[in-house]
Design a protein that fits this description.
Number of domains: 1
Shape: globular
Strand order of the largest sheet: 2-1-3-4-5
CATH architecture: 3-Layer(aba) Sandwich
Largest sheet: 5 strands, parallel
Strand content: 15-25%
Radius of gyration: 15 Å
CATH topology: Rossmann fold
Structural class: alpha/beta
Distance between the termini: 20 Å
Oligomer: single chain
CATH class: Alpha Beta
């Protein structure tokens, strides 16, 4: 039996203003997300790519896309809304990939975008995980990838 793990390509984008949880350090936020995913997705050989905006996904191979761009965006709401509209389109165009909308503000802005910017054109997306700082996002991610709960060691 081989110990070789399947690859899981994770691309991410976080707000350059970063998270207040990580002292406004975008690198620390990326590091924390990568560490968390490494702990949860032990069955995979994970590769990470940072700073990939939704419009850059069109021809990029990926399995999971994590997007956190919502809390520190005052004054640039149009730009943020365009990111979320493109993200919704990319989720439709990549039905086998899992999209994680990561953070309370990002989830709120994504829902507003679906309602306001896209006028209900896109509603429920089964490959989108809305993460609002609870533990359920790990379970949802694993389910959407066709995995069960992580076995405890």
């Amino acid at each position: 039996m081989s110990d070789k793990k399947d690859k899981l390509r994770v691309v991410m984008c976080t707000d350059p203003m970063a998270s207040c949880v990580h002292d406004n350090d975008q690198g620390a936020e990326y590091d924390a997300i990568e560490e968390e995913l490494q702990d949860v997705m032990v069955e995979f050989d994970l590769s990470f790519e940072r700073d990939i905006f939704p419009y850059q996904l069109k021809n990029k191979p990926f399995d999971v896309y994590l997007f956190d761009f919502g809390g520190m965006t005052y004054g640039c709401e149009d730009t943020v809304a365009s990111h979320f509209a493109e993200l919704a389109r990319q989720a439709e165009d990549h039905p086998n990939a899992v999209f994680i909308i990561y953070s309370t503000f990002s989830v709120r802005m994504y829902k507003e975008c679906l309602e306001n910017e896209l006028g209900g054109e896109i509603t429920e997306q089964p490959n989108v995980v809305l993460y609002d700082y609870d533990d359920k996002w790990h379970v949802e991610l694993r389910e959407r990838l066709g995995l069960g709960k992580k076995e405890e060691a």
